[in-house]
Amino acid sequence: MPVSTPKNLPIQVIGGSTFTNIPTSCSSNGAEEDDLSSLGANGILGVGSFAQDCGNACTLTGSSNPGLYYTCTSSSCTITTESLVDQVANPVVFFASDNNGVLIELPAVTGAETSITGSLIFGIGTQSNNALGKATVYTVNPSTGDITTRFNNNTYTSFLDTGSNAIYFLTTAATGIPTCKDLTFWYCPTSTQSLSATNQGANGASGTFTFTVGNADTLTSNLSIAVADGLAGPNSDAGTFDWGLPFFYGRHVYTAIDNQTTPGGVGPYWAY
Fold it and tell me: Cβ-count burial of 186 within 10 angstroms (0-12 exposed, 13-18 middle, 19+ buried)?
C-alpha cells in the first residue's frame, strides 16, 4: 500500500503556563488538560467527520462564534476568529490519496481482556482493504456531526466516538441502572443488562442492534484489564448517547469526512 504523509498540517501546542486567566467560556467546557499529566497523552490526532475542528463557525464574529479559539495576553484571553486554513485539522484530508475517510476494524470482545489488536485504515473505497461493501451509510447532521438514537421509545442525539472508553448514555434516572459506589462515572447493575437501540442517520437509514451494560466494578477489578465489553456509564449530557469504544468491538466502522467523495456518497457520514 502507498504511504501518505500529511504536509503543512496545522496543530495546536498546549502547555502555555504564561496564560493564567482562563476565561469562563473556555474553562466551563471541561477540566483543564493543558499539560502531559492532565491530558494523559503526548498528542491527539483527530480523525473524525470534519476536515477542521470547528469549520466555518469559528470564522464568524459575534455570538455565532462558538468560542473555541482565543487571543491571549499575559493577563486575559478573548474569543477570536480563526480561518479554515489555520484551524486544527484532520490529518487524513492532507494526504495525497486515501484522504476521504477512515475505517476502524476491531475484533469482537467478550467480557474483559488485557488487550486486543485492530486496524485504522485510511481511505474508503480507495484500496482493496477499505471497500465499503454492504455497510449501511448513516449521514450525520453537517452542523453538529450527530445522528439520532431511538431507545425505550424516546429519541436522543448521538454520535460514535472511539475516544470514549465506554458507552456513555443518559442517566440513572432515565435508565434505571445504578452507578458504581466509587466509580460513579460508570454503571454497576447487579446483573449484565442486554439492551436494544436503533440508530438513524440524517438520510433516514436506520438499524437496530443490541448492546450490553455490565458491572464496571467487576469488569475492571483486574488492573491488567484494558478492554471491556459492557463498560458503560451515565453521560454528562443527560440526553445524549456517546457510542464509545465498546460499540466498535466486532464491527467495521467507516468515517467519511465532510465534502469528500466516497462510494457511499459525499461525507460526512458513518457506516457500519
Answer: buried
Q: Is 101 exposed, middle or buried (0-12, 13-18, 19+ CB in 10 A)?
A: buried
User: 197 near 84, Cβ under 8 Å?
Assistant: no
Q: Identify whether the C-beta of residue 148 lies closer than 8 Å to the C-beta of residue 157.
A: yes
The SS3 assignment for 52 reads strand
State whether 85 and 125 are in the same domain: no
Residues whose CB falls within 8 Å of the CB of residue 271, separated by 6 or more in sequence, listed in order: 124, 132, 135, 136, 137, 138, 253, 254, 256, 264
Residues 41-64 have pLDDT tens digits of 787 777 899 999 888 999 999 988
pLDDT in tens, 88-136: 999 999 999 999 999 999 999 988 888 999 999 999 999 999 999 999 9
Residue 5 lies inside a defined structural domain of this protein: no
Query: Cis before residue 23, ω within 30 degrees of 0?
Result: no
- Non-local CB neighbours of 51 within 8 Å, separated by 6+ positions: 84, 89, 90, 93, 257, 258, 259, 260
Question: Does residue 68 sit in the same domain as residue 107?
Answer: no
57 CB neighbour count, 10 Å cutoff: 15
pTM above 0.85, yes or no: yes
Is 84 a domain residue?
A: yes
